Amino acid sequence: MEMHIALLPGDGIGPEVIAQAVKVVNAVGQKFGHTITFKEGLVGACAIDATGDPYPDATHEICAGSDAVLFGAIGDPKYDNDPKAKVRPEQGLLRMRQKLGLFANVRPTFTFPSLVHKSPLKLDRVDGVDLVFFRELTGGVYFGEPRGRNEQGTKAFDTNVYSKEEIVRLARMGFEAAQKRRKLLTCVDKANVMATSRLWRETVQELAPEYPDVKVEYEFVDAVAMRLIQWPKAYDVLITENLFGDILTDEASVISGSMGLMPSASLGSKVKLFEPIHGSYPQAAGKDIANPLGTVLSAAMMFDYAFGLAEEAKLISDVVNLSLAEGVVTEDIAEGGKAYKTSEVGDWLAAKIL
Amino acid sequence: MEMHIALLPGDGIGPEVIAQAVKVVNAVGQKFGHTITFKEGLVGACAIDATGDPYPDATHEICAGSDAVLFGAIGDPKYDNDPKAKVRPEQGLLRMRQKLGLFANVRPTFTFPSLVHKSPLKLDRVDGVDLVFFRELTGGVYFGEPRGRNEQGTKAFDTNVYSKEEIVRLARMGFEAAQKRRKLLTCVDKANVMATSRLWRETVQELAPEYPDVKVEYEFVDAVAMRLIQWPKAYDVLITENLFGDILTDEASVISGSMGLMPSASLGSKVKLFEPIHGSYPQAAGKDIANPLGTVLSAAMMFDYAFGLAEEAKLISDVVNLSLAEGVVTEDIAEGGKAYKTSEVGDWLAAKIL
Ligand SMILES: CC(C)[C@H](C(=O)O)[C@@H](O)C(=O)O
Ligand SMILES: CC(C)[C@H](C(=O)O)[C@@H](O)C(=O)O
């Protein structure tokens, strides 16, 4: 197969972890006979520094012309805590999501036997957790108008808005994922307060009969925030709007004890994007110590979701598990054992694949 | 002192737990020589059943004419999962908050040595947690206009709106609480996305110099959702808007392992309201098995916050701790020991006070 992949390393440790994913992707390509080409673009703080724009047109063209985007991380401390800054790296992220039409963010949470003891939760609560969020990513309060201030600047407002179609296309992805998994779908909303949430709930109720094999539950966002800690194993597939998804996927990500390893996918009409859920970790940048496994597992999701190549995806996650079992890991999870460099882990994984 | 207290038992186990708080309040009154009168009102599902209105005018008059309101719980399964129901118990709650001007919801999370092992979190993460949320309660997306649907019903929208004054009065409460505690204030927002959040952050930044002894931190809501699980001891006082507060206070409530014991206060211009954070627990209603300690501790907060009677408040929490130490507790926390009835726990606490 021919694959055109856009690489957006971004800021902080982004370039280092992306470099390891490239090694792994190339190894898989070589082994399975795929022709893979990469094009690199700037995004985030480094793009602001170079061009004044966190998501330059040139980067968008590279992404729009690719089959998939591999993304590292963005964010730089110099843009933090400055609510009045005119240009911020996150704006690039939001514009990229919107311009590429990436309306569904897929965020799995699962555990690794060798890392689950690092969870802040007790073992019986978290061991074997396997859930996945489908977060709506291009609607809601993130993009709704009007937003801003009154003339005197003494009042601020935001608009949360959802159309039925936006809900339908996201919900269908959730239903279909549930059909391939444990057949439980949880619709997360605040239908006792918000008009948008009532449209979500109604729309999901209308779709449900088309998926008779899927059990559908409706839960308020505050209840889910509790149950994710109390009994996360109760969940299979969760669907929700943009802002609730932002909060709950981050909450869910820490329960596994291996946030640095969690991958994600953002799906849309044509191009699909894959990125680790961890941040740009500026303190570690350039030191060759960052954990590349979240990015490598995001590349595995890419083979699966963007190219329908499940075997390739499986091989990548198998070698990742092997690296954990054999202790070929970075210092964050080495626990007294030898700590490998970021680049060494990438080399090891690529060699195992070939 | 003369105290006029409105009692709103509400639904489910509400009446049973309120009855125990009344015993305790009366005992404290007798011991310290306070004259206490109670007036009872309907709220929630029981008020809908009786009058068609979840917060009848008669109830509002009782509350508005009192110094403090003791509130049980509301909610009935027959109103759940029906997004189209015309009248819902929650509407009564929201109207009550608004009409009484209860703009600040105070939600502490702390641990009890004898119960902390019930936390879903590992002991080292949670032992000694002591944080308190100040959640804005009468603004934001809960009340913002416009809200609703377009004509065809294919689009729904909500408005989140905050004025500077709404933020200032809530934030000042947080600053003052922090001054009396560990002097750390965390402002929780989503200033990288929302205009309302940017006004929150700006306003808090403007107030901060007036409280030079308080260290102020600004964190995004998604980050707080993570850190509340990873390291809740890092927090002291948190301030936030209505919707974020709804989600995060519920999340915080389960980490202590004793959600059934957590009290809360809602403060406003004149009347103050006190309630346990647990729900109406309909399965247990009428069985004399519900845990009354959350309501009793809410009564303790009442003496403190509504009447400035710290000694009375302290005595109540001391006897609650004694009941835990001596195992005079309901079945939810009896753990193999003898399970006392709801009413027996109330009698025991009142007797200990006298
Ligand atoms: C950086 C920020 C705008 C972004 C969001 O809120 O979507 C981030 O938190 C995320 O979840 O990817
Ligand atoms: C019942 C509901 C409207 C309410 C809220 O969202 O405020 C509840 O969740 C709470 O936190 O008191």
Protein architecture, described:
Two copies of one chain form a homodimer. The two termini of chain A are 18 Å apart. In chain A, strands 2-1-3-12-11-4-5-10-8-9 form a ten-stranded mixed β-sheet, sandwiched between helices. In chain A, strands 6-7 form a two-stranded antiparallel ribbon. The first copy, chain A, has helices at residues 14-32, 45-51, 57-64, 89-99, 123-126, 164-180, 195-207, 221-230, 242-255, 293-307, 310-325, 331-334, 342-353; strands spanning 2-10, 35-40, 68-73, 104-110, 130-136, 148-149, 155-163, 184-189, 215-220, 237-240, 263-267, 272-276. Chain A folds into two domains: 1-102 and 268-354, Isopropylmalate Dehydrogenase; 107-259, 3-Layer(aba) Sandwich (Isopropylmalate Dehydrogenase). Chain A is of the alpha/beta class and 354 residues long. Bound molecules: 3-isopropylmalic acid (2 copies).
